[in-house]
Design goal:
Elements lengths: L11 E6 L5 E10 L18 H12 L6 E6 L2 E4 L4 E4 L10 E5 L5 E4 L1 E4 L4 E2 L5 E4 L10 E2 L2 E2 L1 E2 L1 E2 L19 H4 L9 E6 L5 E9 L5 E5 L9 E9 L10 E5 L4 E5 L11 E4 L5 E4 L6 E2 L1 E4 L1 E4 L10 E2 L6 E2 L5 E7 L2 E3 L2 E5 L4 E8 L2 E3 L2 E5 L4 E4 L33 E2 L2 E3 L2 E5 L9 E4 L5 E3 L2 E3 L6 E3 L8 E3 L2 E3 L9 E5 L10 H10 L12 E4 L2 E2 L5 E5 L6 E4 L2 E2 L4 E3 L5 E4 L2 E2 L4 E3 L9 E3 L2 E2 L14 E3 L2 E2 L2 H8 L8 E2 L4 E3 L4 E4 L20 H6 L19 E4 L2 E5 L3 H7 L7 E6 L4 H5 L6 E5 L2 E2 L3 H10 L7 E6 L2 E6 L3
Parallel strand pairs: 2-3, 3-6, 4-7, 5-22, 6-24, 7-25, 13-19, 22-28, 23-28, 24-29, 25-30, 28-31, 29-32, 30-33, 31-34, 31-35, 32-36, 33-37, 34-38, 36-39, 37-40, 38-41, 39-42, 40-43, 41-44, 42-45, 43-46, 44-47, 45-48, 46-49, 47-50, 48-51, 49-52, 50-53, 51-54, 54-56, 55-57, 57-58
Antiparallel strand pairs: 1-2, 8-21, 9-10, 10-20, 11-12, 11-21, 14-18, 15-16, 15-18, 16-17, 19-20, 26-27, 59-60, 61-62, 62-63, 63-64, 64-65, 64-66, 66-67
Length: about 800
Amino acid sequence: MLFPKLLFIGFTCITSLSARGQQSDTVKRIYISTKGSDRNRGTLGSPYATVEAALRTVEKYQHGKNTQGVEILFMEGTYQLDKPIQLSAGISGTRKQPLRIKAADGAQVTLSGAKTLDLSWEQGDHGIWKAKVPKGTSFQSLYANDSQLVRARYPNYDPVVLPFQGYAADALSPERVATWKNPKGGIVHALHAGRWGGFHYQITGKDGSSTVELEGGQQNNRPSKMHETYRFVENIFEELDTFQEWYLDEEQAILYYMPTKGINPNQLKFVAPQLENLISLSGSSSNPVHDIEVSGLRFMYTTPTFKKTAEPLLRSDWTIYRQGAVKIEGAENCTFRANDFIALGGNAIFVNNYNRGVKIEGNRIEKIGAGAINFVGDPEAVRSPAFRYEKFIPLNEMDTVKGPRTNNYPMDCEASDNLIYNIGLIEKQVAGVQVSMAESLRILHNTIYNVPRAGINVGDGTWGGHEIAYNDVFNTVLETSDHGAFNSWGRDRFWRPDRKEMDELTAKHPNLILLDAVKTTKIHDNRFRCDHGWDIDLDDGSSNYEIYNNLCLSGGLKLREGFYRKVYNNVMINNGFHPHVWFQHSHDVFRNNIVMQSHQDIQIKYWGEEVDYNIYGQQDDLRKDQAKGIEKHGHLIQLNFMNPALGDFRLKNGKNQGFQNFDMLHFGVTSKRLKMLAATPEIPQLIQAGAKKQDVRWTWKSGLFKSVETLGEQSAAGLPSISGVLLLQLDEKSNLYKSGLRVGDVILNYQGEAIAQLIDLQQAIKKHVHADQPKVSIFRNQQQQELNLQL
């Protein structure tokens, strides 16, 4: 689109008066309207049509000697952009008078990356309609009357099935491929074999009649084959077989669509996303864009970018694509506040390389194809970077200077009071907030839920100093495995995949450990719940953390090998501490925490600087840990919580127990508009041993369970004794049913743990929360059988 030559430069002057009636500040307001013209003057009565015209006016004004503030105001409407809005250093504001770009008061303003399709539909066979599109038209997603349609796929879309809203082991079977005439351009989506994220492949053709040729699969930095079961295909014409599916034949320039029965698509408005990016702030450390505020806008309809997610991030499991609906690079003191990011194909916000003082606050981010907020620096800023799990820089070649090499990374930035949910709809190695190669970020008061992997992820130790506090993170790791509501890695300069080699290196050169994790990262006053992993998961090498005052509702806290972690005054409901493969001189401290299980240690020979003074609810758990030579001062108390039904797990009897109560009712978003929208986690029922209660029933994974407690139940099951857990009810659509469990089965063992009563099963599930396919022994038809549950 060519913009008309600017004929008039104008603005509206809003003058405010001081208390004495004298003129003080003047704000220049420039208006944009969907009904405006770039030949206008940019005033309320004569608005521009485009942001470009407004920015030209701002630039000319900023280059003058004016000191007043400037505002660009969008009037009501949807602005379909044909190219991203570029904000450069030349239109920057000042600390006292930032340039404000926002919706006019009371206006609902949408910046859209989609174009409207002018279609004339004709009805064809089998309920499928077709319409011609201009030659060269291409798009990956499609909306009708603001509802996203489903690209023709197998298996069909089912919103309640995870992962992928439907998967099938036979998605690429020879029998199915043989039914596809020309699958070129089709897409295969699959999970990693270990379920550590996802892969995406494009079908380039067929090899014979029953095998497809693929390219792609670079979306995970821990390569593997695709998962044998968790996969689906889309953009295959022969799979267009149900309502709300569509298929675009780009070669013939024909769009096919199967509307709901009785609906004439000629009465619908169709839009197709075209842009990856809607607004870019583009500057540099030497010439930053600065002091700009963007607020009150709705960002919608960007195109999926999963094919481009290929850049490895150091030795984390991630690859990344440095793009988003908003991309911020080379910015200082810029803010995106109280915006909505909805129905986006890729990342919502990407804070890239050099940035200082950038704030992302008060935003609503939902229905996102990839990640929500990403802070990612430049690998060139890292000394001796390595990019694959199995790669490292030999010591004799390593740069051993502490800290970063350049300043090209985010520092002193903030993500606060953001409501983030239903993300990772396409890409699965994503997070609500992702951090890599950054320093001293503040991640505060965010509510994050319904995500396929971590809610908050820190990909490496460079360069620490983050504060992660007052967040509410739950319904996480819904489609993947081996992760947490909070997750981190620290495969920094000292880290090696060979444990023996790493032990020797860190013992001989302990100074290497904090070369990258220079500053302490603090995780405090958060509420985490992960039912498919750990609530807090510090994985490979994560070092230099202080973790306190967190409420962990389900998965407990894991510390894999690393150094200098201090963990205290946390509450772990129905779970506990999971230390894995620690170093001899880790300097780790775990004390004054409330735990409800014994420590679930794996390959621990050395117990760090201190594992002691923790508070237990069960005598057996304390005895188990003391038998390991730890918890000399660990003690047992009656866990009388203030109001556990409402999530208030402060101790009534907390005085003199070494534990300090902290606020457990005010997590997550704080702004009124977001609090009204935000969900909260389900508060778990307490699992506590004690006086045996008859007929206690428990629901898990769409099944209803109880202890075998009577002679009648023993006789009915044919059990040799009154022992085990009886399955009373089970949804036939559930994963447990698909795994082979049936009503009447009695569970006797779960992942090697003997199950005598319901609490044993509950505790075993928590202990082995990371197990995707736990092995169970059941009693059925007077015989013991083994099953692997697909969770």
